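Appendix B. Extra example for self-study. Work through it before the problem class; the solution is given directly after the inputs so you can check yourself.
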Amino acid sequence: MSKNPEFVKFDKVDKSYDGKVLVVKDLQLDIAEGEFITMLGPSGSGKTTCLMMLAGFETPTHGEILLDGNIISNIPPHKRGIGMVFQNYALFPHMTVYENLAFPLRVRKVEKDEIDKKVDKALSMVSLNGFESRMPAQLSGGQQQRVAVARALVFDPAVVLMDEPLGALDKNLRESMQYEIKHIHESIGVTVVYVTHDQSEALTMSNRIAVFNDGKVQQLSDPAELYEKPVNSFVAEFIGENNTFNGEIVDIDKDKCKVKLANSEILANPISVKSKGEKTTVSLRPERALINPTDKMDNMFTGKIEEVIYHGDHTRVRLNLLGSSEFILKVPNSTSNLELKVSQDINIGWNSTDARALDPK
Amino acid sequence: MSSETKQILTTDGIPLEVSLKKAEKKNKIKAFLLVAPLLLFLIITYVFPIGEMFSRSIDDKMITNMLPKTFKEMEKWDGQELPSEEVFTAFYYDFKVLVEKQEHGKLGQRLNKEKNGFNSITKKLFRQVKRKKIDESSSIKDQIMKVHKRWRNVEYWQAIKRTAPPYTMSKYLKGVDMYYAADGSITQVDEDRRIHRILWLRTLEIAFFVTLFCFLMGYPIAHLLATLPMKYSNLLMICVLLPFWTSLLVRTASWMILLQQQGVVNDFFVMIGLVADDNRPEMMYNKVGTYVAMTQILLPFMVLPLYSVMKTISPSLMRAGKSLGGTPFVAFWKVYFPLTIPGIGAGCLLVFILAIGYYITPALVGGASGTLISNQIAFHMKQTLDWSFASAMGLMLLSGVLVIYWIYNKLVGVDNIKLG
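Solution. Structure tokens for the complete assembly:
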């Protein structure tokens, strides 16, 4: 079966609530059938608005949204056949778990036997068999969450939307639910549009991630690329940890550029800079800088340890390097661990390909 | 497995339960002292007056104390023939005491309520006793019977005997248009004189429809209040509460200005050609006036409980209902409406109970066909001064409210009420 690469399509969508400010600006986004796509961004970045437009609770101010080739902007929410998991679960408090799950089937006039079968199947998918007659208030947060997921899936929708569904859970439960939702997605192949502001959640679960800021998609790519190759300084800053240097390009060729900092120069990988004299922010992931590197690296500097914080599996080291005292290193916890002491001088090195010269902050 | 676990002791050997009670005792006393003033207040202003009302409504001791000897002798009388000489004699001595105390008039009035005609014959007897015309050495029975022919009529003596018990239910029977007939059986009054029953039914009818109108109008308002953005909902809330801040009398009076035949509403109807100028409908001094004014006045009592319940219903529930495939109506009916039932229950109960005892508004705009049972109670309090009858009807109203509360509890459950 060939998958439609434009199963859900946002075509030049604008959205404004007050006629003055655009919450979503000229959004162009294609979502493939069976894909798990995450809209990631800080609050107020327009990601939830996009989800609400797709669900039908908000109408685009301009542009069209297409579902499987059909324009859906004028179809009311209840006819779109899109499942939705809400932030606070939105389970119907006066109905049992069974009735909650049967609701979408009953309004579709499904036969009673068929409802029983489907509810049973959906509950076993989230391993909640035997909870049919419980009321939502008698369930724990995680169980309520699973009921909400099962309810959004029970009527076999083509697309399921999830609006920060794990926001109210504690950390451990959130992580196990992330895997559970990921596995459910993999086993039934439904298209999932997931909204979150938690970058680790996005990286764990998604096929692709759309990073939103200021009403625009800043970058749309798979998790690895998003982390390794951010295209601008917002994405680099928002996803994962990041060491930055602000400077000016003094020399540039095809895959290397020289950046002049306050009182030194570093080599970097030109991503969004074109010519000499441009201002730039160089981004370097903490784990890409090594202590006393054995290989030849084209950036080698000496820094002074300001702070050492033990994190169990790794140690964070804050250095004073190249005039900045905010340079972070992550040292994995291994048997050959170095003795790291405050105010000790150490040699640091990294490859210029890992130092990405992006737009200035 | 034995449920009798070993008694747990604290470190100094006192059983844990005893120790806990000791520790909690101080808090309990504190809590009680805090609520004590309110408890006292409730007892003085609520429990005591209701008790007083009840005793007044059944009290018939006055006459029992007036004719002690008579009633004692009457115990032996079978009530068929005229009573014996002893009864007449006892009555004479009782009456003589009353004459000395100048209380014979009261007796006449009281007996007149029992049977018409007593007033004049007691007055006649009084004159005879006053002038000492009764010879105490000969048969008193014959002399009394000579005073007036009614003293020879057994029905009048039966009426006296009926007043013997210190307590009577007659006021309650009167409240539902019944009375004790001469033979002591409970009888309905003539059909053309059954005014109380009409009033009870009308009170129930008006309370029911006022509740219904309040619900129909209050539900959308409460929904708007709960869903509008803050700046609009505050304004709307003020509009809802404004009647609360205006005197009840002023509001009712303004309805009189609006609804009278030459009033604003009628003028408007004439202006838009809905009714002819010489055929203006009467919207006041009848049920229409009572409905309109009471609905407006009681509306906040419906809106506020509904609002407080609707405020707690997350808007995402309706969205969930729609996204799962329910039409807006299905989402409303299956999801939103059931969640507002506690508010509906509280609002309807509140409005109904208030409406059933409403007084000023029907008195002012109700006219003859729009007055309620409470107006009748007020009438007996102020005009006829029959306080025991007013008390009896007040208690009947109270028990009616309790019955409604009980039915409501059976149907919806009081735990489901939410006032805010």
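Self-check: The domain at 195-416 of chain B is CATH 1.10.3720.10 (MetI-like fold). If your reasoning did not lead you there, revisit section 3.
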